[in-house]
């Protein structure tokens, strides 16, 4: 995953370390609860420990990393149960933001939402789930931005930061990205129609779908039964 860079320190090295660690967390290469040792990643990425430390602080602000007293940094652990509870709070706030956006967004801003959803669809087609997840984050951020100055924006930013890894895992579930695209389009259509109620209803329905997918992801997969009695009999 690591790519050569021209500097071992400074902003370029910081961004390099941040993106390497971010993708490793999203892809599951670094597990929840795993310690993130600055010397190890500094050597692996050929950057300074200060660059790794700065990258970890950025990722802590994004909700992917947590600092533990006397233990350093580790990949943040958010259980499915906690993710559901956080997402339930998001439902009301994102519905409110979508409703406000329906009365505040300009035609150009709504066109931008359509374009973003189209780029998300292209990412799904290409199997680029990292780009899809990032565009998904931007889409929700845009709804918040279009709602204008409001306390809900700051609250949602803090809530969403804790769920990035879960969002990526949901993107791996068959059919979920396609469903999400349709749900996004319903929100955009409500905003374009200048219909706050329709936009809010669509946004809440979208978050309800996320909650259901989170709950489904926590269910154990049933074992596959043997295809025939004879197959079962010959197993050691």
From TrEMBL:
CDD domains, A to Z: WHTH_GntR (cd07377)
PROSITE patterns in the cross-refs: HTH_GNTR
Domain of life: Bacteria
Alphabetized InterPro entries for the sequence: GntR_C, TF_FadR/GntR_C, Tscrpt_reg_HTH_GntR, WH-like_DNA-bd_sf, WH_DNA-bd_sf
One Pfam match: GntR
Residues covered by the HTH gntR-type domain: 11-78
UniProt-listed SUPFAM superfamilies: GntR ligand-binding domain-like (SSF48008), Winged helix' DNA-binding domain (SSF46785)
Keywords for this protein: DNA-binding, Transcription, Transcription regulation
GO MF annotation list: DNA binding; DNA-binding transcription factor activity
Residues passing through the membrane, by range: none
Stretch list, region Disordered: 212-236
Protein name: GntR family transcriptional regulator
């Amino acid at each position: 995953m690591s790519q050569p860079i021209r500097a071992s320190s400074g902003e370029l090295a910081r961004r390099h370390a941040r993106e390497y660690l971010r993708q490793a967390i999203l892809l599951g290469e670094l597990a929840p609860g795993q310690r993130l040792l600055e010397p190890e990643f500094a050597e692996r990425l050929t950057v300074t420990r200060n660059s790794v430390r700065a990258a970890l602080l950025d990722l802590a602000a994004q909700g992917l990393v947590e600092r533990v007293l006397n233990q350093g940094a580790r990949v943040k652990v958010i259980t499915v149960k906690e993710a559901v509870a956080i997402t339930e709070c998001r439902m009301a706030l994102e519905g409110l933001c979508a409703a406000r956006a329906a009365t505040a967004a300009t035609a150009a801003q709504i066109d931008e939402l359509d374009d973003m959803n189209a780029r998300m669809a292209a990412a799904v087609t290409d199997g680029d789930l990292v780009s899809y997840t990032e565009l998904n984050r931007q889409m929700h951020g845009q709804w918040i931005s279009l709602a204008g100055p409001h306390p809900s924006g700051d609250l949602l930013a803090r809530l969403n930061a804790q769920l990035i890894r879960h969002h990526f895992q949901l993107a791996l579930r068959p059919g979920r990205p396609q469903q999400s695209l349709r749900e996004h389009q319903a929100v955009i259509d409500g905003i374009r129609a200048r219909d706050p109620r329709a936009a809010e209803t669509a946004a809440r329905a979208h978050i309800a779908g996320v909650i259901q997918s989170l709950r489904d992801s926590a269910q154990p997969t049933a074992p596959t039964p043997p295809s025939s009695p004879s197959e079962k009999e010959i197993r050691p």
